[in-house]
């Protein structure tokens, strides 16, 4: 997803939060950095040897990314607050993976694998991608399963969600209802373009309350450029304002995960 379109999505949803809460400081205050100095790679004992003999296939990098992202999830460690050295380590693994290993699942064929699933933004090599989020918020993509069969995986509906770990004045989540299309051609294989339709919120236990005065967002589009996909990790590519390439990792959520309740 491009830096400009990503920021547009987040900024608009942040504006909604500010308007509804009437308090600009309630959740945008920067939290103190959490360094998690005690957090080590699950395979740290063998990392030195593995790095010396790292295969060109990218399997070592994939193994490390999976293990560390799973550990972060289990321990509720947000990638936003990782120590700089840990962020650098994961960024190197991710960059190396996408440069060494071709996507296990063809980018133009991801449609059936993303349908009916929830994907969480788990990591980004671009710190600004995470810093732009409101405090305590996590991005989710909920892609609806319409069960139409055939080639329905090329288009459908999804929710672009900002979900909060702690309620902000009764706010649990903001949901941008969208339609999407997936490019399965050879031109931009795996390019997911989604168009905003309306925004809903969950406040004080009342779900799906429409926010009609943000109609200016309707029909505005953004996109996610798939660069690597294996059914568990979904990596997309973006470019920041300086033209530098970066990657985001979306992690497949289990049905029983707390975030999906």
Shape: globular
SSE arrangement, N to C: HHHHHEHEEEEEEEE
The low-pLDDT segments are 16-54
Helix segment count? 6
Counted beta strands: 9
Strand percent estimate: 25-35%
First-to-last CA distance: 27 Å
Q: Gyration radius, to the nearest Å? A: 18 Å
**Mean pLDDT across all amino acids:** 76
- Helical residues, percent: 25-40%
Give a written overview of the molecule.
The protein has six helices and nine strands. Helices cover 26% and strands 31% of the residues. It has an eight-stranded antiparallel barrel. It is globular, with a radius of gyration of 18 Å. It has helices at 3-21, 47-52, 59-74, 84-100, 111-114, 127-131; strands at residues 118-124, 137-143, 155-168, 171-182, 191-203, 206-210, 221-229, 233-239, 245-252. The protein is of the alpha+beta class and 261 residues long.
Keywords:
eight-stranded antiparallel β-barrel; alpha+beta; globular; single chain; about 260 residues; about 30% strand; 9 strands
């Amino acid at each position: 997803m491009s830096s400009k379109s990503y920021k547009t999505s987040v900024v608009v949803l942040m504006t909604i939060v500010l308007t509804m809460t009437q308090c600009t400081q309630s959740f945008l205050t920067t939290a103190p950095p959490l360094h998690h100095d005690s957090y080590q790679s699950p395979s740290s004992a063998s990392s030195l040897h593995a790095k010396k003999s790292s295969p060109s296939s990218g399997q070592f990098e994939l193994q490390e990314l999976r293990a560390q992202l799973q550990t972060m999830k289990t321990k509720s460690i947000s990638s936003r607050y990782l120590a700089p050295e840990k962020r650098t380590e994961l960024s190197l693994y991710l960059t190396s993976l996408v440069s060494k290993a071709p996507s296990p699942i063809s980018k133009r064929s991801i449609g059936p694998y993303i349908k009916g699933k929830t994907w969480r933004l788990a990591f980004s090599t671009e710190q600004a991608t995470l810093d732009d989020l409101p405090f305590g918020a996590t991005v989710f993509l909920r892609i609806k399963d319409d069960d139409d069969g055939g080639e329905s995986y090329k288009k459908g509906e999804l929710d672009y969600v900002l979900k909060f770990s702690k309620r902000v004045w009764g706010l649990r989540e903001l949901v941008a209802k969208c339609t999407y299309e997936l490019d399965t051609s050879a031109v931009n294989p795996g390019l997911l373009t989604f168009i905003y339709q309306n925004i809903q919120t969950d406040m004080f236990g009342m779900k799906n309350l429409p926010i009609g005065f943000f109609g200016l967002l309707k029909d505005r589009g953004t996109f996610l450029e798939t660069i690597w996909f294996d059914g568990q990790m979904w990596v997309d590519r973006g470019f920041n304002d300086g033209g530098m390439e970066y990657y985001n990792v979306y992690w497949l959520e289990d049905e029983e995960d707390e975030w999906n309740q």
